[in-house]
What we know:
By secondary structure, the chain is α+β, with helices and mostly antiparallel strands. Among the domains are: about 5-130, no CATH class; about 385-430, no CATH class. The chain has helices at about 5-30, 45-50, 65-80, 90-95, 100-105, 125-150, 295-300, 325-330, 390-405, 450; strands spanning about 150-155, 170-175, 230-235, 250-255, 260-265, 270, 275, 285-290, 305-315, 315-325, 335-340, 345, 350, 375-380, 385-390, 410-415, 415-420, 425, 425-430, 435-440, 455, 460-470. It has a 7-stranded antiparallel β-sheet. Strands 7-6-5-14 form a 4-stranded antiparallel β-sheet, with no helix packed on it. Strands 9-10-8-11 form a 4-stranded antiparallel β-sheet. β16 (about 410-415) and β17 form a beta hairpin. α3 packs across α4. The two termini are about 25 Å apart.
Amino acid sequence: MYELSNTVLFIIIFFIYAITVVGYYKIFEKAGEQSWKSIVPIYNFIVHLKIIGRPTWWIVFFFIPIIDVFVYASMVVDLLKSFGKTKTYQQALGIIFFYIYLPYLGFKKDLIYKGKATQLPSENRSATKEWVDAIVFAVVAATFIRWLFMEAFTIPTPSMEKSLLVGDFLFVSKLHYGARTPQTPLQLPLTHQKIPGTGIIVEGGIPSFLNWIKLPQYRLPGLTSIKRNDVVVFNYPPEFEYPIDLKTNYIKRCVAIPGDVLEVRDMQVYINGEALENLPLMQNSYLVSATDRINERILRKYKITDFELISRNNQGVTYMMHLTLSVAKELSRLPFITNVEDATYINGRFGKRQKGQAELNIFPDSNLFPWNGDHYGPLKMPAKGVTIQVTKENLVTYRSVIEDFDHNSDVVIEDDKLFIDGKEQSEYTFKQNYYFMMGDNRHNSLDSRYWGFVPEDHVVGKAFFIWLSLDKNESFLKKIRWNRFFDGIH
């Protein structure tokens, strides 16, 4: 994965803006506006709105992330209509390559302004052609936006509760970290791994892609880099049956970035020796004992959705519950609650994880590193350009990085020795950055503690905001969680 520098990013943005202004310069002239108006930032968009017949107040949309992309795409389509460019391919070119297509049109001598798009009569086209053009245009525009700007995701599991809830629908920004160029170009638009609905024809569904062509993957310039505590969507690294860009999408919180040393001591995460701030909505698991079954009204009051009844006898009942610290404290004060204690499920039984108690499925290896989810590390994150010595411990720790993710063609590890392309190596230099991801529901999350590092080329984007939230446990009228609409994700 290659990432352009901030200087190159600035040059690219400035170049795109400059040639767009050049296109505006000639187009404004043909529309009867003074050409100099194209040079003035913001004002040139106001003039654009005037030419197409849209209200000036639309300029407000340019200050709303994501929305501004859709609004500008709509403005480009209207501008093309105002000059008689109404064919689907012309509008697709205008949206995807506006910085090339607008200057091209501006310098065409036969380009004629036909009036405000909102006032022009509709073309006399058959209903079939209208539908075909509309579908093709929508697919092209949606595919482009999905690749370059943002993509919609849903939360299927409780690993991020209570920060993100099962049934949350969210937009993930590709702009923040930079969009990746496609690795698998032979794919049906707007699909991921399978063609939707084909599971009834073939078990598991029909693949939506062909792996005949595999392109090198690059990352376009982004607005920022991944920071600690960012909520990140990424491709699940151990899923090797798919190309990188088609692996299953996971969402977790980044707790460690390249070069960091991570350690977990009794459930508290430490980065480089300092405690990482615990988020108010972070959950852990608790054994909750009560004199009798807990009423549904109480569960609803405290918004307890992730729980399991594990025992019932003459003394009462015991639940395994995933709770925030504040809710755990509130429950402990209730008169019918007899005990609330930290506990989890480890190696086939319930209990509190102890330091030195190896969890069988822990990363990187429970035999050499007797760690568990609550007592973990120290573990250093691989960073691009950093060199390590080839030792038994390093080979166990970073084996998956060297073998599977760092794009080495011929790797052999045997007898605590590393061979690349047939040559023994005494040291190894990482080729890309790696991150450590954890769910906010710490005791109910399959994350980096169990399968390892997230390579930079597996990063999809940053979780941005929730646009819809549905509660599957509620009735029809109460299913929508109105209070989560357009919540930012932090």
